Amino acid sequence: MESIRNDVFDAQACGSLTPKSKPCPRPKPGEAAGGCSFDGAQITLLPIMDAAHLVHGPAACAGNSWESRGALSSGPSLSQYGFTTDLNDNDIIFGGEKKLKDSIDYIAGRFMPPAIFVYATCVTALIGEDLDAVCKEAAGRLGLPVIPVNSPGFVGSKNLGNRLAGEALLQYVIGTGEPEIEIPLGVNLIGEYNIAGEMWDIEKLMKSVGITLMSRITGDARYKEITWAHHAKVNMVVCSRALLGLAKEMEARYHIPYFEGSFYGAKETTYSLRQMAYLLNDREMERRVDRLTEREENRLIQELRPYRKLLKGKKAVLYTGGVKSWSIISALKELGVQVVGVGTNKSTEDDVRRIADRVGDDTEYIPEGGASRIIKTVRDRKADIMIAGGRNMYVAMKEQIPFIDINQERHKAYAGYEGLLRLAKELTYSLANPIWKLAASAAPWDKEEPSYDR
Amino acid sequence: MTVNKRSKPTSVNPMKIGQSLGSVLAFQGCYKALPIVHGAQGCSAFPKALLTRHFREPIAVQTSALQEMDVIFDANRNLEEALNTILSKHRPDIIGIIGTELTDVAGVDYQSMLKTYKRERNMRGGLAFSVTLPDFRGSLESGFSSTVEAMLDEMIQQVGHRGSRSVNTRQITLLPGSFLTPGDVMELKEMISSFGFEVIALPDISTSLSGHLLTGFSPLTRGGVPLDSMLQSLHSGLTIAIGGSMERPARRLHNALGTPYKVFESAMGLKATDDILQFLHQISGEPVQLRYCWQRENLLDSMLDAHFQFAGMSALVALEPDHLYTVSSWLEELGVEQKALVTSYETPLVVEMEREVWVGDLDDVELLGKGADLWIGNSHGINGAARLDAAFMAAGFPVWNELGAYMATSVGYRGAMEWTNKAANLLMRREEEHRESSIRYRGWN
After folding, report:
1. How far is Cα B409 from Cα B418, in angstroms, rounded to an integer?
2. β-pair partners for B103
3. Contact across the interface for A66 and B18, Cβ inside 8 Å
4. By the CB < 8 Å criterion, does B208 face chain A?
5. What's the CA dihedral at A54, A59, A64, A66 to 10 degrees?
6. 0.90 cut: is pTM over it?
7. Which entry of A258, A282, B344, B388 is 20 to 30 Å from B201 by CA?
8. Is the separation of the CB atoms in A294 and A415 below 8 Å?
9. What is the ipTM of this complex?
């Protein structure tokens, strides 16, 4: 078996990866928010926990970003190491390819990873470093997959980076390995990054009905299992529009049917499990799924009762990336929380349609505009809580708005039935905290007092 | 004495932080400021996320959001668009354009573009300047001090040449280094003003990243030193710089305006605080306030209490150059063995240190610091410290595993006492854990 496949990624397939609507409009200088494509590629690939991830560029691309993502590992931790070629002036002038080659050799010799991912950055792309050639040469020499990821920051947004990482997987990883034992009914999870350990809750559910998780792409993944992802019977695209192209291409190449689903909320979780069993075409499994989901949903109804009482009628503004917009809405609705404003800045037309299906007509769509726009919506709609990413957290704190972190740096897992219960608890803790009253009250000497009668 | 470098082609677990992040940090200490990182989106998104995580505050920063074609054809068109948007929407007092490795390698001339822009739009009354900070040179510290230098330069150009300068001998300009926390800057301001001086800190993160509750969101910085105070600082009778990296900005003031300056390379520990207070006492003729006499005794007493804990202990320090120097001199006073001193890049200060200093990454730290009892460095070191079985003490940038790290104080007698107790407590707890595990081990046999 060759460690890197020779067939070139054909242009036809590449075309089909581009969604019809343009999902990544040009960011506005002076008003842009969010990460770059390099960031996006790392978000997708860093959860391959046993691989080494080498950033070819100046120090800060890796230095400012390593250990900043909340994808957890159940074992190996090599992907948590920050590797960078740390280019200096001289390398930029005379070229950094020699250094890159030496770095690959050094990592291979010292850490013996199953694979090395090499990331281009703006500078190395600009000075024309031939990443592909260096990786190919090193792979051949070392007998080790060395995978170039051509997603420098300036090609676009985070979303595009996710997609480019998916392309790297298709081109260099998927289809290059065979599982040790044959798995007859395996499912791939695509675009689930095991933030705060969500993957583990999902895996438990799948296991309990006998669905085998074939490859995790890429939350808590091992390199090897992705190489045999093409043997799966079903692909589930979890909450990541960016990797839909990967599923589509796998359908074209390997005839693996895919569906898009989510694990946020009981209804979505049940639907996703059912869909898996249905596509696996196994009656017995479908019955098992029905039994499990019924039992879990009933249990949840009991356990959610006290929280539902408190949460009923509460209003939330949700501002998060792409697909999570609609999937979290379902979860919130099940808890009785009304979504009065929702961000659509990173959503595609499909996402927006799904959002519309789930919210009422008087929900405000927040297309873009960052913190001030979100806060305005919170105020206008008299929302009780804001649900968004870490970057907006302290903006909400300053405005004394209860807040829940929903993005990649958070520490709470909200997927599956257990996750919904956790979400209910978090919402309640956040809303009921005494700090909101204390922070809103002035110091005694700042309060107006009636003057004493003398 | 010596600065060494381990030879290996790769940086493993980098310590180096981009210069541009240091620059963004400096701007946070100026009121109504907005730095624009002239580069790809990530060049501002990463610093923003990291600074937010450390300070637990919103961070003001924008980007020119360069994409491939912009870099090839005309990156300054993006910058102009960014400037137009920011000026019409937010009206900042201070705009800083931070050139990145991307604009540097592409050879973008934003300096003259900015000049033309300012002239054409007749921009007056604020500060707008650029600073070139590619990430393949320096680190957080140099980015911070270069920005302060560029800022002073711009201020001097605006008002410096106009007429004769009146000097206010009761006013001191404080240039705090990048390693000082908002709590540190506050402590230093108090210390200096206790001798009757007016202090203008530049930048002043003590009033912007220290946890205010101002409502009404703005994309600009919400605290820090306002522009008129900044300009006022040009009349100061003296500049006090804390940290070796701040000597250059201080010298800039001296060369342009003749303001004398005094650099304190450290403000941590007994001797360093003694030096500062003695200096202030001498130049002001005022007595040292009673509270500092008390604090001095408190510190000495806590050092006495803790010295049992430090006996035979060794520490490793992995911090930015100025910070490394300060912490090393504090450890000296405690009699703790210094197993390894590792920093991100070479500066004159670390070259002149009497101890052996290494320029490297956290992987080097693990190798050089084998057997150390205490690991002092940023939060990236948590795993390495665990592998070495050393107690981990969070310091420097970034610190995300502790609340309030940004308000922790290390300067002055009070700060040294805080650090001494904290370090000793960590060692005490580690000793207890070890004892427990050895009891358990015997139980198994």
Report:
1. 7
2. none
3. no
4. no
5. 20
6. yes
7. B344
8. no
9. 0.93
